[in-house]
Amino acid sequence: MTALVYALGVVLFLFGVLASIALHEVGHMLPAKKFGIKVTQYFVGFGKTLWSTKRGETEYGVKMFPLGGFIRMVGMLPPAKRDADGRVKGITHGFFGKLIADARALEYESANEVEESRLFYRKPWWQKVIVMSGGPLTNVALAILLLGGVFMGIGAKEPTLVVSDVSDCVIPASEGLRPCVVPPAENPDPVSPARAAGFRVGDRIVSLNGEKMDSWDEFSAGIRASAGGRIDVVVDRAGKP
């Protein structure tokens, strides 16, 4: 059962990562399309294409390695700047020069077929900012919605004076998380003080050494202050002290 729950957790985690990636790219794509920029591809993942379909001018699909995603907007790279003699400015030689030149050449294989008003680099600066920030802002909005849903729908766990669990034994912190060793096994673990005292799940703590308790912090501080001595605790159990 534990292995099944663990496997389910891994699957849900991976699904959540993929959903986050997909929504991130949607955050880029929607404003780009709204501003008239031509978007030719929307993919989740990298590597070999596992599935794709074309709707309108955009190809949507999933690739083999779910390590990210991308959209392809035509005109991401502006044409190379040239000097008065027509020579390209900037890096034009070496590995990076060839890399830049190849990227520009690949970009304009499709850019030449698109009217200039639909090229990304031709858009006003504020539209570029919206398109490029759309992905991260989508993730921020997603985090706010998920955390807000958890806190408002489930809530944050807070300590109360109602006993929710009683440990069976005392295990040294150095031994980490492990099951209790109980009699008749050899060298059993010590019974927990709460278990030995008779606490039960559902008990509501009323007082400590005759003093009314109003919070868990107050109760735990009283226990620490009485270390090594006897303490008397009154609990409400099913309406009876």
Descriptive keywords:
241 residues, two-stranded antiparallel sheet, alpha+beta, elongated, 5 strands
Description:
The chain has 241 residues and is an alpha+beta fold. Among the domains are: 13-75 and 114-153, no CATH class; 173-236, no CATH class. Helices cover 39% and strands 18% of the residues. It has 5 helices and 5 strands, in the order αββαααββαβ. The chain has helices spanning 2-34, 94-111, 125-153, 193-197, 216-225; strands at residues 39-55, 58-73, 204-208, 211-212, 233-236. It has a 3-stranded antiparallel sheet with strand order 4-3-5, covered by helices on one side. A hairpin with a 2-residue loop joins strand 3 and strand 4 (211-212). Helix 1 (2-34) runs antiparallel to helix 3. The longest helix is centred in the first third of the chain and has 33 residues, at 2-34. It is elongated and about 90 Å long. The mean pLDDT is 87.
Topology of this structure?
Elements: H1 2-34, E1 39-55, E2 58-73, H2 94-111, H3 125-153, H4 193-197, E3 204-208, E4 211-212, H5 216-225, E5 233-236
Antiparallel strand pairs: 1-2, 3-4, 3-5
What would you say about this model in short?
The chain has about 240 residues and is of the alpha+beta class. It contains five helices and five strands.
Q: Give the CA-CA distance, first to last residue.
A: 39 Å
Q: Can you tell me the residue ranges where pLDDT is under 50 for at least 5 consecutive residues?
A: none
What is the overall silhouette?
elongated
- The number of distinct helices, counting runs of at least 4 residues, comes to 5
Question: Helical content, roughly?
Answer: 25-40%
Radius of gyration: 32 Å
Strand content: 15-25%
- Mean pLDDT equals 87
Structural class, from secondary structure content?
alpha+beta
Number of strands: 5
